[in-house]
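Memo to structure team: turn this sequence into structure tokens by end of day. - J.P.
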Amino acid sequence: MSSQHVKIFDTTLRDGEQSPGASMNLAEKLQVAHILKELGVDIIEAGFPIASPGDFESVQAIAREVHGPIICGLARCNPADIDRAGAAVKDAPLPRIHVFLATSAIHREFKLRMAKEEILRRAVEGVKRARDLIADVEFSPEDASRTELEFLAEVVEKVIEAGATTINLPDTVGYATPEQYGAIFAYIRKHVRGIENITLSAHCHDDLGMAVANSLSAIQNGARQIECTINGIGERAGNCALEEVVMALRTRADYYGIDTTINARKLYPASRLLSHVTGLAVQRNKAVVGQNAFAHESGIHQDGMLKERRTYEIMNPEDVGISRTELVLGKHSGRHALRQRVSDLGYHLSEEQLNRVFESFKTLADKKKVVYDADIEALAEAQIHSGPAVWTLEAVTCTGGSATIPSAVVALWHQEGRIVREAAYGDGPVDAVFKAIDLATGIHVNLIDFRIRSVSEGEDAQGEASVEAMYQDKVLSGRAVSTDIVEAAALAYLQVTNRVALRNRIALDRVKPTEVAADPELREAN
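Reply from structure team:
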């Protein structure tokens, strides 16, 4: 197979954000979009503009600010969706509208309640409307892997005639096997007129753990675009992991003969950034970017590594951005060194944010002997998460122990200029702090998960607190760091509280959403 290029279509900000608990605000989405640009992805699917005003605003902001990759917006095959997507991406130098409509028998019968003829008509009309707005139009027959091949070929041929420039064949529910999925691409290439003039794309879910394998099979059978996400996040079990498919192609170039334009040294920083932004931890044994991906404990493995690295490592950790040594910063380090390290770690901070990170860094350096990369990441991440705050923590004190009832007192500053103090008892000091915050703010959420971990090494390490809570059927997350773990817990919980407060304020100010925007099908896509 001769050397060729496969496009990387990143849908972290669309399909990836549909992971429970992975929602991001505008500032966080821009951070992710910027590192995707640095990573060298060809297309960024920035969101589903019709889903909400917030989704529209984020797609529009990315289209205006992130230049280089194609910026894509998703739309169902109806005029309102398509027009909204077109308006969101029109300011991008390279805009794309991605239109989808389900084609499988089970979706036709139970979800859409449409006959084949109606599916064909709507698909063609949708592509034509999108093409009237934007020259670059992608079409996805949703659940393609469970669609009858003859009907699938008919739909694909009709939408190509209507003006589609990319055809995506999604394995929407992760049902396909590599051999079967590759055969679908081979069939379409053989039976569809005009297929040689368009780009074939693969979009695989990981329900059976075969998303990467299926994507590689699609490449072998003519796909030249792969739709994937950082860390493989996405609906249910997730999507094809960008870092895995990229490094599979690169490491086994002898077999595939196809490469990408991805800057692989940005893979690990991108993985870390997304994990921090979403609060979704990367499993230790995750391929390519996991904590154990380049760790060796077995004595036999260690002996082999000492004699020749290639005995047990098929990739260099440096090639994916994992450094074996850390740049150690201390209280005598200057602003320039910190700025460079923040940039190297993949963060894009404004001058104001960088100034706040520098102040926090100096304070931390006075408390710790050594400031590690993980500490710098935590400080930078705190600025991304900070955003506008209705409530700010002024002080927190707590008592606990086996011979006393745990209690806490918090003092919170409200942006209107008043201080509120409340006290509460709890099952433990952290529970008491959370209850005191509830009393002070008048906002009550249902705690789902609470975790504390050490950010870096040593007895003086920062503690990272992660909180997940439910509010009105919406999962919200918060994350904060401090050398005091109780303070970290309070800051993380207050982050969730602030998100609720801001949502409630926006809801009061916003015009009532249209029936289209309230459609329950909005979250259903590839």
